[in-house]
Every structure is written in structure tokens, then in C-alpha cells.
Amino acid sequence: MNNRSDRFLLLTRIADALDRLAPPISNNINLDVADAFVWNANSEKLEAITQINRIDISLLHGIDVQRDILLDNTRRFSRGLSTNNALLWGARGTGKSSLIKAVHAKINEEIPHALALVEIHREDITSFSCLLTMLCNSSRRILLFCDDLSFNKHIDDSYKSLKTALDGSIKGRPSNVVFYATSNRRHLMSRNMIENERSTAIHPEETTEENISISDRFGLWIGFHKINQETFLAIIENYAKAFCLPIAINDLHKQAIEWSINRGARSGRVAWQFIQDVAGRLDKSL
């Protein structure tokens, strides 16, 4: 028994030594195979996406100022110039994530294959630093994107890891990567959470500064706000015209208003959902 145990321990030590001598397995993916990828944190690999779910930038109305700001920032990044991480915050359904994907498409239309779009899911933010390390080895410029980013007390580790990776680590953000995030919250935390921590803290102001410091890592803040009925109907008209829907303007407006009342909201998302319903009833495919 002792001899068998000794041999087993010896073989284990040899195997461990060989593992240390062997080069690490590379998880790098060729970012030239596609223009969009999704990060899989469990396998630490990027999944190529050939068909991106997005709306053309010409169809995004009511957010002209936001569009121009983000487009300019992204265009400078694609040309190797200085640029900022961007936080798109505000009311839900107002076109934040749609704008990011549309801007990516627009830049690649101007300069083919200029940017790769990489999406990281909110629940995988703890692997943000790992992903950055992988992306920095690429010669391609990368727009890193996280939709609906927010934090609470139960995911404090992801909050700290993102804050450090964006601006705090001695490594810094790779020059070939820019990070765009969308959120319903300007400070990425609920007001109730900030107020609760402030009320229980020994030094309330210091606690508040710590909570909102993550937003300061984004040099560019772009606000999105609820739209009025005039803008809502203008968005509807633009969709109907773009897709050549055979419906009278008066009927279109009437149905759109009823739709928004039933939904209890007016937004770009509600407008798009309404147009899909109209197209279906008119036997049209979008």
C-alpha cells in the first residue's frame, strides 16, 4: 500500500509540474470573424453573433441630440482619438440600447469593419476585468456594451470590480476598448438604497460619495427622458412611412393614442411594438 501511495504522489507531482510548464490555454477569439460578440463568463469565451437585433439609426426619432453626441464620441474612438466611456441613463424604452447598436452599425457603414461590438451581461460584471484582459490583446477597436446596468447590496463585488477596472486600476482601460452602458438610474443605484445607507452611516456624505462614484467613471452622461404625444406620433409616422404601411394618418394616430393609453406609456419601445402590431394586421412583415 505504501509503495502504491508513494507512486501515486510522485505521479501527481510530475503531472502538476508539467501543467506549470505547459503554456496556458488561450481563450482568445479571432475578432475579425464577426462584427458582434456576446461574452460567456462561465466559459470565458466570446460567442460570435452574425445577425444583430437592431433598428437602423435613421428610424430613431425624438433622440436627435443624444444620437449626435454618442455618434460623435464613437466616431472619434473608431479613428483612434481620445474618447470617453458613456452612460446612457433615463426612462425605460426611450431608445438607449437601440441607439448604441445603431451607432455601431453606422460607424461600420462609414468605415467597414471599424468596430467590434461586445456585449457583457449585467450578471457577468464580476468578470469584467478578465474580459478586458482578453480584449486588450486584439488589434481591433472594441465597443464594450452592457444593457440595463444597475447595482444593489447583493452584488457589491461586481460594483467594486467594475469601478476599479474602469478607472482605478494601475492597468487602466485598454486604449482599444470603450465602454457604453445603459441604465434607468443615473447613479446606477436606486435612490432608496442610497438614502438607506446614508441614514445608517456614521459619515453619511462619505457613504453617498462612495455609492455614486461608479457613475463618475463614465466621462459622458447622456440623459433620455419621457416623450410627449407629438413626438410619439412623429415616431409612429416615421415607422409607417419607412415600412410603407398602407394606413391613413388619422387612423394611424387614433390607433396609436389608444395603444399608448392601454399601455400606460409613450416611448420609442411602445411605438415600435405598436407598429409591429399594425404591420401584422395589414399582412406586412417588418
Written account of the structure:
This protein is an alpha/beta fold and 286 residues long. The chain folds into two domains: 36-224, P-loop containing nucleotide triphosphate hydrolases (Rossmann fold, 3-Layer(aba) Sandwich), CATH 3.40.50.300; 229-281. The chain has ten helices and seven strands. It has helices spanning 2-21, 64-78, 96-110, 128-135, 156-166, 191-200, 204-212, 229-242, 249-263, 268-281, and strands spanning 36-40, 45-49, 86-90, 115-119, 141-146, 177-183, 220-224. The protein has a seven-stranded mixed beta sheet, with helices on both faces. Helix 2 crosses helix 3. The termini are far apart. Mean pLDDT is 83; it is low at 22-27, 193-204 and 206-210.
Short précis:
This protein is an alpha/beta fold.
Q: Report the radius of gyration as a whole number of Å.
A: 24 Å
Could you give the distance between the termini?
73 Å
Counting DSSP E segments of at least 2 residues, the number of strands comes to 7
What is the level 1 CATH name of the largest domain?
Answer: Alpha Beta
What portion of residues is helical? 40-55%
Going by CATH, the homologous superfamily of the largest domain would be P-loop containing nucleotide triphosphate hydrolases
- How much of the sequence lies in strands comes to 5-15%
Count the domains.
2
CATH third-level topology of the largest domain:
Rossmann fold
Mean pLDDT across all amino acids: 83
Low-confidence stretches: 22-27, 193-204, 206-210
Main structural class: alpha/beta
Architecture of the largest domain, CATH level 2?
Answer: 3-Layer(aba) Sandwich
The best one-word shape is: elongated
